[in-house]
């Protein structure tokens, strides 16, 4: 099959990680025409990849109304067009398939202004109307997409593929290669490495990530004797510009008790997960929620907010739930960290990119 794939979001957070993990599967089994910047295309100079350089940002006016004719010609000679998000350049005539990871901007008031929310909904609707199928990463997200966008979907199916643990993230001593079945989650391959006295937060500062709840709980627990430090994976300056009120809370913490890692590479991120006593994911809303899966695979316990998608994904994992948005409930869990016994877990096949790819590829073949 000859597949055109937009890779311009490979540098964009969770969407970029999702795409980067899927691309090797696409390239191995298909002829691929990849659309991206020169830097993004560089790693994919292989015999079965045709590279189309394009520097316009996704969702731009130029992308929609003056997409280069020479690029369109090559794309329209493919069998299908796949976008890992909901952006679709104008002029594509072959079957289109997109992924909508979540509709958080439609579900959570205040994340964007009225105009920003309407613009996002327009692009979601446009993707639904133009797509032969829409993929998403959880049944929860599928339900929310159908709820908000059912008029645009009509007969377009919304297919849950689930998100997955990237191959680079897997611990070679405890995980099998992509495509193999994992053992029961109850079986631990080995005890994890010694832990630092660290509570870990991985995510951004947007309201729905719940960092404010974690900070309140952490500060309350420190007053009652909690010895742990809170490590936030991210850049301090980026957090400051995102939400100053969060920083005001951080300033009241005991000196040295809240630490920003700055930007970290893949190996440093793995090491940070491995050394933490616990990962806290206090989100009010997620489409899937990858950090808990990453932490569990490396032998770090997880404390989660009790939201529907976490119940869907993590209900059979040995995690600890707390009442969503309730800092006192989370504080109680933080004060019982000594009771936690962590083990490394092999992640079930349902959360593998080989399975995600097979679902997407089968759907594309049935176009």
Secondary structure layout plus pairing:
Elements: E1 2-6, H1 13-29, E2 31-36, H2 38-41, E3 49-53, H3 61-65, H4 69-75, E4 80-83, E5 96-99, H5 104-107, H6 114-130, E6 131-136, H7 139-153, E7 158-160, E8 198-202, H8 211-223, E9 229-233, H9 236-242, H10 244-251, E10 258-260, H11 266-275, E11 278-281, H12 290-297, E12 301-305, H13 308-314, E13 320-322, H14 327-334, H15 353-365
Parallel strand pairs: 1-2, 1-4, 2-3, 4-5, 5-6, 6-7, 8-9, 8-11, 9-10, 11-12, 12-13
Describe this structure in words.
With 367 residues, this protein is an alpha/beta fold. The protein is 39% helix and 16% strand. It contains 15 helices and 13 strands. It has helices at residues 13-29, 38-41, 61-65, 69-75, 104-107, 114-130, 139-153, 211-223, 236-242, 244-251, 266-275, 290-297, 308-314, 327-334, 353-365; strands at 2-6, 31-36, 49-53, 80-83, 96-99, 131-136, 158-160, 198-202, 229-233, 258-260, 278-281, 301-305, 320-322. Helix 1 crosses helix 15, helix 6 packs across helix 7 (139-153) and helix 8 (211-223) packs across helix 14. It is globular and about 65 Å long.
Keywords:
367 residues, alpha/beta, seven-stranded parallel sheet, six-stranded parallel sheet, 13 strands
Brief overview, please?
By secondary structure, the chain is of the alpha/beta class.
Radius of gyration, whole Å: 21 Å
Report strand order across the widest sheet.
3-2-1-4-5-6-7
Structural class: alpha/beta
Share of helical residues: 25-40%
Taking the sheet with the most strands, its summary is:
7 strands, parallel
Approximately how much beta-strand content do the residues carry?
15-25%
Q: Based on DSSP secondary structure assignment, what is the total number of beta strands?
A: 13
Q: If helices are DSSP runs of H or I spanning 4 or more residues, what is the number of helices?
A: 15
What is the end-to-end distance? 11 Å
Instruction: State the shape.
Output: globular
Order of helices and strands: EHEHEHHEEHHEHEEHEHHEHEHEHEHH
Q: Roughly what is the average pLDDT, rounded to an integer?
A: 89
Are there runs of 5+ residues with pLDDT below 50, and where? 173-189
């Amino acid at each position: 099959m000859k597949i055109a794939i937009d890779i311009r979001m490979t540098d964009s957070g969770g969407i970029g990680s999702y795409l980067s993990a899927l691309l090797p599967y696409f390239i191995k089994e298909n002829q691929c025409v990849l659309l991206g910047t020169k830097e993004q295309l560089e790693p994919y100079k292989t015999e079965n990849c045709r590279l189309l350089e394009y520097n316009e940002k996704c969702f731009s006016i130029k992308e929609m109304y003056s997409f280069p004719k020479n690029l369109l010609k090559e794309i329209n000679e493919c069998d299908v067009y796949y976008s890992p998000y909901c952006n679709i350049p104008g002029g594509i005539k072959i079957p289109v398939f997109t992924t909508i990871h979540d509709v958080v901007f439609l579900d959570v008031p205040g994340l964007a202004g009225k105009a920003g929310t309407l613009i996002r909904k327009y692009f979601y609707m446009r993707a639904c109307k133009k797509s032969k199928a829409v993929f998403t990463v959880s049944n929860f997200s599928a339900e929310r997409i159908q709820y908000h966008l059912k008029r645009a979907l009509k007969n377009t199916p919304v297919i849950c593929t689930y998100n997955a643990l990237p191959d680079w993230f897997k611990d070679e001593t405890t995980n099998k290669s992509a495509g193999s079945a994992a053992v029961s989650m109850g079986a631990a391959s080995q005890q994890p490495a010694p832990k630092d006295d660290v509570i870990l937060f991985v995510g951004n500062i947007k309201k729905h990530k719940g960092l404010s709840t974690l900070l309140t709980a952490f500060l309350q627990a420190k007053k009652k004797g909690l010895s742990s430090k809170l490590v936030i994976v991210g850049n301090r300056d980026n957090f400051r510009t995102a939400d100053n009120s969060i920083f005001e809370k951080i300033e009241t913490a005991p000196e040295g008790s809240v630490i920003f890692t700055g930007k970290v590479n893949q190996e440093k991120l793995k090491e940070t997960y491995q050394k933490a006593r616990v990962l806290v994911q206090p989100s009010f809303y997620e489409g899937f929620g990858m950090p808990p899966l990453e932490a569990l695979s490396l032998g770090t316990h997880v404390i989660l907010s009790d939201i529907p998608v976490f119940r869907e994904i993590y209900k059979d994992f040995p995690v600890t739930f707390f009442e969503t948005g309730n800092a006192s409930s989370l504080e109680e869990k933080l004060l019982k960290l000594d009771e936690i016994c962590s083990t490394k877990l092999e992640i079930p096949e349902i959360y593998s990119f080989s399975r995600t790819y097979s679902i997407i590829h089968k759907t594309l073949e049935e176009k």
